[in-house]
Amino acid sequence: MYTYLLFIHIISAVTAICAVIGYPLIMSSVRTAGQARFGLALLEKMAILPKAGGTLLLLTGLALGFLQTYLFHQMWYVVSIAIFFVILVILAILLPSGIKEQLALLQQTQGEALPDEYRRSRRRSAWLEGIANLAVFISNMLMVFKPI
Predict the structure, then answer these.
(1) How far apart are CA 94 and CA 91, in angstroms?
(2) 3-state DSSP of the chain
(3) 3-state secondary structure 61-80
(4) What pTM was estimated for this model as a whole?
(5) pLDDT over 90 percentage in the chain
(6) Which of 36, 42, 58, 126 is deepest in the core (most CB within 10 A)?
(7) What per-residue confidence (pLDDT) applies to 147?
């Protein structure tokens, strides 16, 4: 059972991480309002990946902990779960609200030039995406090397 849960856990992590890494890659090439609308629509569709992968990741991670209860006493395990919740807040709450705000700003835009308000909102989202990527990196490091 442990091996199967671990397999699902790893696949879930890959699914969720691909989306987290993909967000800034998609939006970094946006230069016009039309491209931004398309990119944001794509991000809205991709949002299912971190939600589904993250849910499975949390459930399988906790199940692994219940199968081997000593994990709840390991600092790397507890810190990884805490970091997961930081990532969850960013991906499930903060970024979607930023995407909605950016889409609303683009709906008011005529022409292909990106408005300054959009650029400010996009910088905030890019900053959050960077934090999420750093958190994913740290979480992966903790799970692989189990340093503490």
Answers:
(1) 6
(2) CHHHHHHHHHHHHHHHHHHHHHHHHHHCCCCCHHHHHHHHHHHHHHCHHHHHHHHHHHHHHHHHHHHCHHHHHCHHHHHHHHHHHHHHHHHHHHHHHHHHHHHHHHHCCCCCCCCHHHHHHHHHHHHHHHHHHHHHHHHHHHHHHCCC
(3) HHHHHHHCHHHHHCHHHHHH
(4) 0.88
(5) 75
(6) 36
(7) 85
Residue that the structure tokens 């979607």 belong to: 96
- Beta-carbon count within 10 A of 43 CB: 22
Q: With cut-offs at 50, 70 and 90, classify the pLDDT of residue 18.
A: confident
Q: Is 20 within 8 Å of 53 (Cβ atoms)?
A: no
The type of residue at 45 is K
**CA 14 to each of CA 29, 71, 85, 136: distance values in angstroms, whole numbers, following the listed order:** 23, 22, 17, 11
Q: Show the CA angle centred on residue 88, arms to residues 90 and 84, nearest 5°.
A: 120
How many residues appear in the chain?
148
Can you give the pLDDT at residue 19? 83
Q: What residue segments make up the domains of the chain, in order of their start?
A: 2-145
Asked if 102 and 40 count as a contact pair (C-beta separation under 8 A), the reply is: yes
Q: What is the mean pLDDT of the chain?
A: 92
